[in-house]
Amino acid sequence: MELDRQDVETTVYSLTSDVPADAGADRRKGVRHMTLFRVGSILVDGQRELCLIKNISAGGMKMRAYRSLEVGAELTVELKCGQHVDGTVSWVEGDNVGVAFDKSIDVIDILSHSMEGPRPRMPRVEINCPVVVHIGGKRHEAIGVDVSQGGIKLDVAPRPAINEDIVVTLPGMTPVAGVVKWAEDDFVGVTFNSLMPLSGLVSWLGEQRETLRKAG
C-alpha cells in the first residue's frame, strides 16, 4: 500500500537558534505510519554511535540515542561528511536527548546537503509565520507551523474538513493549491497539488531566517 506523504514522520528543521525541547508525544502520532528520521552519528568518549535526528536547529538538536547519555556529557555530532560540531547534552527524556551546539550551524546549508540524490526532496522546516488561506472562497488567517515542498502544517480556525480544497499563501510567495489530509485540534496537514519549486522555497526560507535574526 502506498503511504500518503503526510503519514510519514521526518526530521524537522528549525530556522531558530533555540535547542529543540522535548515536547512529549507528537499530536499526530496516531495518524503516522512510517518514520524517516535522518541518520546521524555522534562521538562520545572516543566511540562512534549512530543516532536518529528528530529535530535540528542552528543551536542544537533533538535525537534518539542508542546509548545512555547524561546531562552535561560532551560529544561531537557529524551532520554531514567532513562537518563535525561539538556540543553538550542539555536534557534527557527516555531515548530522546537534547544537544546544545557549542557554535551555531547553518541550517540552510545542512538542508541543501539533505536534498542531494537522484530524487531530492526537501524535509519539513519549522516556520511559525502568518499565512493566508482560502477555503470555500473565504479568506482566513492562519499560522504556518512547518513546510516542505509537498505540504504544510497549519494552525487554523475554523478547522477545514478532511479532503477539503484549500489555497495557501506564504508571505511573498505565489498561492499554492492543496487538499487537507489530516486534522486534529486547531492543526491541519495540507498536501499541495504539486511540489513547490525547490529554489524558490530555499530562497524564501533564507529570507525567513534573516527576519528571525533581525527580530531576535
UniProtKB/TrEMBL annotation:
What's one Pfam family the UniProt record gives for this protein? PilZ
GO: which molecular function terms? cyclic-di-GMP binding
| PilZ domain ranges (all copies) | 26-108, 121-195
UniProt cross-references to InterPro entries, sorted A to Z = PilZ_domain
To which species is this protein native? Sphingomicrobium lutaoense
State the name under which the record lists this protein: PilZ domain-containing protein
